[in-house]
């Protein structure tokens, strides 16, 4: 289980945060809608929380191995 988490879930979570971050930066550089910027910022914060939970769970599972 730890292999699947560290091999798939952690990279997916990190890539999701990076994608939303880049989308937000592109929107800001183009002078896009502020509501869109706020939505992307909220999604980034939520995804960062999820990524931290996944990373911490992976570390915990890896520590449970005999």
TrEMBL record:
UniProt keyword list: Membrane, Transmembrane, Transmembrane helix
Pfam families: HIG_1_N
Protein name: Twin transmembrane helix small protein
InterPro entries according to UniProt: Hypoxia_induced_domain
Organism: Hansschlegelia zhihuaiae
Highest rank taxon of the organism: Bacteria
Lineage, uppermost ranks: Bacteria, Pseudomonadati, Pseudomonadota, Alphaproteobacteria, Hyphomicrobiales
Domain HIG1: 1-66
Residue stretches spanning the membrane: 6-25, 45-63
